[in-house]
Amino acid sequence: MADAERDRVLAESGVSRETGEALNLYVEQLRRWQSVKNLVGPGTLSEVWSRHVADALQLLALVPEARRWVDLGSGAGIPGLILAIAGRERPGFHVKLVESNARKCAFLTETARLTTAPVQVLNKRIEAVMPDLEVTDIVCARALAPLQQLLAWSEPLLKKGAIGVFPKGRDAAAELTEAQRGWRFDHDLIASRTDSDARIVLVTNLSRVDA
Predict the structure, then answer these.
(1) Residues tagged in the binding site annotation
(2) Which residues are annotated as a binding site for S-adenosyl-L-methionine?
(3) pLDDT for 40 beyond 90
């Protein structure tokens, strides 16, 4: 069953054989480290390909021209490390993985080495690293914080022209309403390919309501 799920996800993603092998190595690493690092919810490991890998890969199709990504609160590398593995054959593709937990950074660093993923692992708090980040194409985060907080963290990059790509669950519309109390921004709300209740929020042109 797991092999069939993997084969389906890889076929639908259209990645090369080499990239498919690297993604398979990522999943093997995730399972190996999970027992001691608790990287993802234990109940999701049986559906890792559809629950995590496919969920991350769908983001590439939304912004196909993007090359420079910043992933906040990377954790187990979802979506950032998965995106880097899938995008490594694209010239100039690079992902900065921001993660404050040193043990999770160890997983990210080792797995990126094994998969030759083009990443830089930043073992710092988001607030500490954000002022030093240069202009980027995309800032993303998954299962990290409400949209209002994500916008506050991402403000320096979004104001420089980055697009915010934020996968959200069934409460996406409510989070949008709450965020609009403090922020002005343009957005698209896109249905997830992997969860009928989930949405992906794309954010541009951010400014504060009281600015």
Answers:
(1) 73, 126-127, 142
(2) 73, 126-127, 142
(3) no
